[in-house]
Amino acid sequence: MSNYFYVAPEQLIKDRAEFAQKGIARGRSIVAAVYDKGVILVAENPSASLNKVSEIYDRIAFAGAGKYNEFDRLREAGIRWADSTGFTYSREDVDARALANYYAQHLGDMFTEGQKPLEVEILVAQLGNKLRPTKLYKVAYEGTISDEPRFAVLGGDSETIKTRFATAEETVQPLDVTLRNATNALSGPERTITAAELEVGILEDRGHRRTFLRLSDDEVSELLG
Amino acid sequence: MGLPLYSAHGDPGPSFWHFAETMGLTWVPHATANDTTHATTVIAVRYQGGVVMVGDRQATGFYIASRDVRKIEPADHFTALAISGSAARAIELLKITQLSFEHYEKMTGSALSLEGKANYLSPIIQRNNLSSPLIVVPLLAGWDESNLVGRIFEYDGAGGCYERFDFATIGSGSPFAEGTLRLGFRSDLDREAALELGALALYEAGDNDPSTGGPDFVRNIFPMMVTLDEKGFQELSVDEVGERFRVINQRRTESGGVAGGALR
């Protein structure tokens, strides 16, 4: 017969939350913000090939902070979900809110029932059109989903970065200004982040069905000025 | 549908078709329904700097089911897929193909090579044609970004994929189009000459094959003409295509319907 030590549920949740927070804080952060013509996702990412920001669907982008293998699997599941939903119904029926809800349910399940909680925070961004609004859905490690009106920060130290960005950008700005503010918010006053250390993706209407665009280092440096 | 998560060993990878199979989204084999077929002519001609494709617009069953079908569609920015055979299956193949190329690109962060795209279709065609009476035979052409050339890939009914270095045709009007192409093809064709030859070959097919729609001057519906080059998939406007067929028609009228001389 095996013996289990009693652990109070409050303690269990607290331990799991601390575990996840620690894992997430080890990674670099991401700022997502609405600018005058679209949505920008700015990640501090020294790797040029292991992406934190990606395309999910025509008007939906994904960003993940924390453990790469964990959020990348969620990214893949998101693309599969979106492509098969669009295949079954219609491209216009693919809604970021539904996807964010699935992510929230999965993260919530893993937090309470999994071997360990996922050490990730993710964001589902949607570029609005006449059918749907522009939205930033942030999903935390324990499945809390929040709908951020203008910007969101993922990863460790998010409160500090959030305050810095909110102070710098009081209203919706053009792309270059928003990118500069996001970069400064990520770096803080002590250090500078170069274009090569940034990964930037945008959702913007450019006359194509697919609105996601990954900006090259050159394009980022030019915008940073 | 919930979130499609897989463990590493059960993961279908970046192939949408394999993923769709696991989800039960693909077609059911052994179907016996008698779908409308669309007998067809689609032509691809290689030229210096790209590929020209020309396709008729008619869907034929026991009667003309439609006069404005698009049998050539962009599979992605640099690739076109033309379809012949059962309309229902062909359209599904087109949908799967378009989605698969984009799906692969999103999943892996880079686009498939043109050869990769051509090979990808083989098992899908094989699966469909060997398990169903509704045959579909596509034709793939595209701009190869790695080698900077236009390339054409044709398939047999069992899914075999063959690269063609001159031209290719699919559909019931093939023999007539093929004859014209064999007489008119040169390896140094430029874009303009390839467009002219392609239009003429389609005109011939439309003239002789009852299931291929030629230029319809009454309804102002003309065969589709497409080029694939370094700029990607580009479709010629109705006016531009109409003008080309008007010239051919005029010449043919003047000669009393005799196609002779310098390929006219």
* Count of helical stretches of chain B: 6
User: How far apart are the termini of chain A?
Assistant: 68 Å
C-alpha-based Rg of chain B, rounded: 19 Å
Q: Outline of chain B, from the CA principal axes?
A: globular
**Most extensive protein-chain contact, per-chain counts:** A-B, 24 and 17 residues
CATH architecture of chain B: 4-Layer Sandwich
The CATH superfamily of chain A turns out to be: Aminohydrolase, N-terminal nucleophile (Ntn) domain
**Named CATH topology of chain A:** Glutamine Phosphoribosylpyrophosphate, subunit 1, domain 1
| Element order of chain A: H for helix, E for strand | HEEEEHHEEEEHHEEH
Number of strands of chain B: 13
Major sheet strand order of chain A: 8-1-2-9-10
Explain the layout of strands and helices:
The complex is a heterodimer of chains A (225) and B (264).
Chain A: H1 9-25, E1 30-35, E2 38-44, E3 53-57, E4 60-66, H2 68-88, H3 96-113, E5 120-126, E6 135-139, E7 145-148, E8 151-154, H4 158-168, H5 175-187, E9 198-204, E10 212-215, H6 217-224
Antiparallel strand pairs in A: 1-2, 1-8, 2-9, 3-4, 4-5, 5-6, 6-7, 9-10
Helix pairs in contact in A: 4-5
Chain B: H1 16-23, E1 37-38, E2 42-47, E3 50-55, E4 59-60, E5 64-66, E6 72-76, E7 79-86, H2 87-108, H3 114-131, E8 136-144, E9 149-155, E10 161-164, E11 167-170, H4 174-184, H5 191-208, E12 224-229, E13 232-235, H6 238-254
Antiparallel strand pairs in B: 1-7, 2-3, 2-11, 3-12, 4-5, 6-7, 7-8, 8-9, 9-10, 12-13
